[in-house]
Amino acid sequence: MGELPMPAGVHGLSAKEQMMKKVALVVLVFQNSTQLLLMNYSRTLKGPSYISSTVVVCVEVVKLICSFALLSHEHGWDWSAAKIELSSQLADPWDTFKVGVPAFIYMVQNNLLFVATSNLDAATTQLTYQLKLMTTALFSVFILGKQLSNQQWLALVVLTAGVTLVQLGIRPPGEGEAHSSSVHYGSQLTGFLAVLSACLLSGFAAVYFEKILKGSKVSVWIRNIQLGAIGSVLALAGAYVSDGAAIAEYGFFRGYGAIVVLIIMVYALGGLTVAVVVKYADNILKGFATSFSVIVCALFSIVFLGMQPSLVFAVGAALVMASVSLYNSSRDYFGLNGVLAAAAAAEAVATGGRRATAEEEGGGTELPGGVTPNAPPLEQVFALLTSRHSSGLALRHAAALAKVASANAAAGGFHLRDLPRLVPVFEAAVTNAANASDARPYAAPLRDLLALAARPLRAAGASDELILFDHVVALVAFLAHAASAVFVPDAAAAAATALAAYDAAGRREDGEPLRYNQHAVSISGCIPLLVQALGRAMEAGDGAVETVDAIVDALLSLSCSLPSHCAQIADAGGIALAARLFAGCARAPARLEVLVELVWNVLEAVPEAHAQMDSVEVLADIRGVFASLLLHSRKRNDRHLRNEVLILATLLANSGYVDPNAFVAAGFTTLLLELACARETARVPASLPQLPLTALGCTEEDFEMKKLLWNLVLSTTTTPDGVAALISASFVRVLLMYLDPGAERGTLLQWTLHQHRELQVLATSLLFHLAAEVPAEFAAGNGPSLVIDAFVQHLDEPPPAALRSGLSKLVLNTAALFATQYGELGLVAVLLSILKDATLEVKLRRDAALTLSVLTAENAANQAEFLLEGGIDAVIALLNFDMSDPEREPTIVLAAIDCIWSAVVGIIESETQFLRADGVFALLDLLDTPKLPAEITNHGLGVILDLLDHPYTVAYVRRWRSGRDAERSVAHLLLEAWETSQAELGVALDRHGVIGNVDTPLAPVAVSDDDEGEGGAPAFAAVAQYGRTAAFVLELEAAAAAEADGDGGDGDEVSPAIADVRANMRAKVFALFCKLGFQGHTGLSCRHKTALRLILEYFKYKVGEVWTEIDAELEAEEVRPISPDLTRLGTMHEYIQQSAVNLQTEQRAVVAREQERELKAEADMYHMIMEKSRLMREAAAADAAAASDSTTAHDPVHPAHVAGPGATLSPRHAMRPR
C-alpha cells in the first residue's frame, strides 16, 4: 500500500503557530540573555543602589496585572466574565494553597539570583544557571515518573562537564593583561552557592507547577494570577523581613531608575513567556533559547565587562551549548536510543503507563502525557508509532491505540488539551496502516478512535477553546483526510461520520454567526479533502460501500450548514462524483434519499454546478433510478422519494445548463410522456412495459407525481426532437381532456374535486405554452372549442378563480393563431360581455380587451361583430377608468386603447360611430389626466394621430376643451406631452425652453435602434403573437412582478422600451401638429411658444441627426468618403447647425417679445391700479367735503372754535343757548 499524502496544514503546527513559535523564541532569547546582564550592569552604576527585594515585589505585581489582562483577552476583553471565572477558582482555598508552594519557591529563587549576580559575572552566572536543566530532569523523573533517553542522560553529563570547565576557565579582570575596568565582584563561593540553590529551586518549582497545571483544567493565566498574588504577598513580607530597616530609612523605591524599571519588565516578561513556550513548543524552544542566551551573554561579557575567556572556558561553553541542543533534540545522534526507546515505549503503553502507581492510588491523577485519566502517555505512543525500530510491531501499535481509545471513551471523549499530541498520533497511525502489508490490526482501534471524534470535545473552560482552536481545525482536516483510508474502511467511515456530526446544524445564511465547530470546519479546508476521499472510496468498489455512504452523509451535513460549503463541494467536483452514484442507488433508497438531498442543496446554492450533470449517462442513471422506484415503490416513503427524484430532474431541466436533447437521448422524455398520458390513454408505457397501470394510483403522492410529470414534460420538450415526442404521445390532447366539460372528473382516474380542479389549472398553464408550439395538435384535439366552452362555463366562478384567469390567458395566447375559429364560435360577444360587466375583476376585463384587440386586428368579420355587439361603447367606458384608486389596474386603459386601434381605426364606419359617441373627447380627457403614465400618453396620441385621417376628426379635436380649465386646448395637451418627453430624455434647454445645443438640438437617446417617426411599434418579440399593446402590457406586468420579487434593475436606468416610448412621443406630437396646424393656437405661454418653434423644425433636425450618425459610423469603421460625399456631409452639418442657430435666435426673440409684453402688461396694470387709486382718493375727498358743508349749514360754529383752544369763555357765552 502506498503512503497516504497528508493535507497541507495537518502535519505539525499551523502557520499561525509557527509564527507564535518564532516570536516566542525571539522573546525568550531576549529575556534570558537580558535579565542577568541588566542586573549585573545595574550593580555597577554610580549612586545609591536599589534594594533587590523590592524589585522582586514589583516583578510579581507586574506579572499579576498582565496575567489578568491576558485572561480578559481570552474572554473577548469582557472584564466581568474574566472576574467571574477568577472568583470561582479562587473560592477553593486548597487549590490556592497548592499554587502558593511554587510561588514561595520562585520568590526565594529570584532573590538568590540577585545574590548570585552580585558575586559573579554575567556569563558565569548564566552558564552555571543552566544546571537547572539537570535539576528539572531529575525532579521530572522522581516526581512525574518521566523517563529520559540515553541521549538525554548523556546530554546532562556533558552539561555538567561543560559547566565545570567554564568555572575553571574564568580569569578575573587584571590577570594576564592589564584591565582598566573598575568592576569588582564579591565572593565567588557565595555566588556559586546562590546560583546552585536557585537551580534546585527552579527545577522543583517548574516540575511542581507542571504537575498542578496538567493535573487540572484551570487556565494557565489563572494559575499565573494565583502565583502573582501569592508571590506578591510573600515577596513583600520577605522584603520587610530582610531589608525592612533599609526600606524604612531610604524608602521602597530607593535607587530606582530606567534600568531598574527595565529589569522589572524583563523579569515579568520572562514569567509570561513561559506560558507561551509551554503551549507551542515546550522544552525544545526553551532549550534553543537558553543556548542562544549563553552565546549572547558570553559575547557581551567579553566585549563590555572585561571577562577574558580562555581555551578551557571556550570548550566548556561549547559543551554547555551542545548539551542543551542534544538534550532537546529528538534525533538519535549515537544510535543508542532506537531499540531501547521503542521497547520502553511499547512496554509503557502495554502496561497502561503504570509507572505512576502511587499517583493512581492517590485518586487517578492525570498523567503528564495528557489530561485524560488512565490514558497512556501520548508522547510515548507517538514514539512507538514513528520509530523505525518499531515499524513492524503492528500488534503493539494496535494495542497502544486501543488503550488510548478506551481511556478517552471512559472519560467521555477527547480533551482539547490533548489535541496537540492526539492529532500527530492519528496521523502516524493512519500512515502506518497505509504502509502495512496487512492493515487489519489497525482497523478496530482506528475506528474506535475516530468514532470518539464525533463526541463533543472536553474542555477546562472557554480559554481552552480559544487557545487550542487551531488544533481543532487540524483535527477536522485530519478527519477529512482519514475518510480516504479505504484500506481500513471501518475507520474511514467513522472519520466521515465524525465529521458529519461535528458540523451538524440547520441550514444557515451567509452573515449569521457560526458555532465553534462550524467555524473550525469552515476554515479547515476539509471539503475538498472529503470530495477526494469520496473519489478514492468509489474507486475501491464494493469494499468501501459503508465509507461512501458515510462520506455522502458528511457532505450532506456540510451542504446544509453554509451556502459557501455548497460552493466548495461544487468546485471540488463533488456533484460530478455524486452523479456517478445514482447508477448504484436503484435498490438502495436510503442512500438515494441522502444523495438527492445533497445534489439538491448544492444545485440550489450554486447554479453553475448543474453543468456537472449535463450528461446523457447521468440522466440515464437518474431515469433508471426513477423507473426502479416506480416498479418497487410500495411504501409511502418510497413514493415520496420517487417524487424527489422528479424534482431533481426538474431542477436540471430548468437550469439552463443541461441540454434538453440530453433528456431525449437518455429516453427520459419518452418515459415522462408515456407516464403522463398512461391512464388517460389506457396505454402501458412502452419503455417500461412491466409497470401495470394500477401502479399509477390516486394517492396524494401519485397526485404530486402527476403534476411533476406534466411540468417536467414542458421543460424537456423545447427542442424539435422533444416536440416530435410530444406530438407522438398526444400529450396536448390529454391536457385538453381536463378542459372538456363533458368529462368533468375523468373516466380513468377518480381524482377528488380539489385535485381535478388543480389539474385543470395546471393543464391550462401548460397549454398556454404548448399551443403556440404545436398549433396543429391543439386544433386537432378540438382545442379552440374546448377552451371557449370551459372559459364560458367558469366565468361565473367567485374570485379567486385561478382556472378562469388561466383560461383567459390561454385564449389571449392562442387568439392570433385561431382568430377566425374563435370569431365563428362567438368569442367576440363573450369578451364584450366581460368588458361590460363592471363586477368582474379588472385583470379579467383587461385580458378580454387585449384578446379583442388581437381578434379584430385585420379580421373584417370580427371587426364587424365588434361593431354590431356594441364594442365601441364598451371600450369608451373603459377610457373613463378611474386610475386614482391605487387598487385599480391602469393597464386596462392600455388594453382599451389597443382595442380601439385594432377594432376602430382604419374602418370608416367604426370611426364615424366612435366620433358620434364622443370617443375622441373621452380619449382626450384621458390624456388630460394629471400624472398619466407615459405609455398611455404615447399610445393614446398614436390612436388620435391615426383617427385624424378621418375627415371629421380634426374638427372634434380642435373643439375639445379641458374639463379642468376651459382655456386648455389640444395644443396645450400636446405641448405638455412634448415638454415631458424632452425633460425625460435630457434635452438641453434653458428655463424658457430655448435650445442649448446647436449641434444636436433634440439630444437623441442612443438606447433605441428604432426610428422615431415610424409610428411607435413596441419593440417586443411577442408583438406578432399578441398585438402591439398586448405585448407591451404583458411586458409591463412581468416587469412589475420582477420588481415586486426584488429582481428589478437599477432604478435610474432607462430601459430601451421606455426610451423608445418617450422618443416616439415627440414624433407623434410633431405629426399631430402637422395635421392640426401650427397656427391659430391661443393662450400659449412663452415656453409653449418656444417649444412650438422647435416642433416646427423637428423633422429637419432628425434628418440632421441621421447624417451625423452616418458620419460617426463611417469614422468608426475608418471609411473615408469620396470628396463629393464629404462636401455634402459638411454642407448638411453646416446647414443644420446654422438652422439651429437661427432657431435659437428666433426662440430668444420670442422670449424677448413675451417678456416685453409681460412687462408692458405689468406696467399697464400698475398704471390702471394707480389711476384707480387716484380716482378713489378724489372721490373720498369729495365725499368728505360734502359732508363738511352739510355740517356747517345745520350746526353753528361753537365760540370755542373761534376763540381758540386756550381761550376762556365768558359767562354770557357759556350760558348762550345753542
Automatic annotation (TrEMBL):
<feature type="region of interest" description="Disordered">
    <location>
        <begin position="1186"/>
        <end position="1218"/>
    </location>
</feature>
<feature type="transmembrane region" description="Helical">
    <location>
        <begin position="190"/>
        <end position="209"/>
    </location>
</feature>
<dbReference type="InterPro" id="IPR007271">
    <property type="entry name" value="Nuc_sug_transpt"/>
</dbReference>
<dbReference type="InterPro" id="IPR011989">
    <property type="entry name" value="ARM-like"/>
</dbReference>
<dbReference type="InterPro" id="IPR016024">
    <property type="entry name" value="ARM-type_fold"/>
</dbReference>
<keyword id="KW-0812">Transmembrane</keyword>
<feature type="transmembrane region" description="Helical">
    <location>
        <begin position="285"/>
        <end position="305"/>
    </location>
</feature>
<feature type="transmembrane region" description="Helical">
    <location>
        <begin position="253"/>
        <end position="278"/>
    </location>
</feature>
<feature type="domain" description="Cilia- and flagella-associated protein 69 ARM repeats">
    <location>
        <begin position="836"/>
        <end position="1005"/>
    </location>
</feature>
<dbReference type="Pfam" id="PF04142">
    <property type="entry name" value="Nuc_sug_transp"/>
</dbReference>
<dbReference type="InterPro" id="IPR037185">
    <property type="entry name" value="EmrE-like"/>
</dbReference>
<feature type="transmembrane region" description="Helical">
    <location>
        <begin position="127"/>
        <end position="145"/>
    </location>
</feature>
<dbReference type="InterPro" id="IPR048732">
    <property type="entry name" value="CFA69"/>
</dbReference>
<feature type="transmembrane region" description="Helical">
    <location>
        <begin position="50"/>
        <end position="71"/>
    </location>
</feature>
<dbReference type="GO" id="GO:0000139">
    <property type="term" value="C:Golgi membrane"/>
</dbReference>
<keyword id="KW-1133">Transmembrane helix</keyword>
<feature type="domain" description="Cilia- and flagella-associated protein 69 ARM repeats">
    <location>
        <begin position="1053"/>
        <end position="1110"/>
    </location>
</feature>
<keyword id="KW-0472">Membrane</keyword>
<feature type="domain" description="Cilia- and flagella-associated protein 69 ARM repeats">
    <location>
        <begin position="378"/>
        <end position="783"/>
    </location>
</feature>
<feature type="transmembrane region" description="Helical">
    <location>
        <begin position="152"/>
        <end position="170"/>
    </location>
</feature>
<dbReference type="InterPro" id="IPR048733">
    <property type="entry name" value="CFA69_ARM_dom"/>
</dbReference>
<dbReference type="GO" id="GO:0015165">
    <property type="term" value="F:pyrimidine nucleotide-sugar transmembrane transporter activity"/>
</dbReference>
<protein>
    <recommendedName>
        <fullName>Cilia- and flagella-associated protein 69 ARM repeats domain-containing protein</fullName>
    </recommendedName>
</protein>
<dbReference type="Pfam" id="PF21049">
    <property type="entry name" value="CFA69_ARM_rpt"/>
</dbReference>
<feature type="transmembrane region" description="Helical">
    <location>
        <begin position="221"/>
        <end position="241"/>
    </location>
</feature>
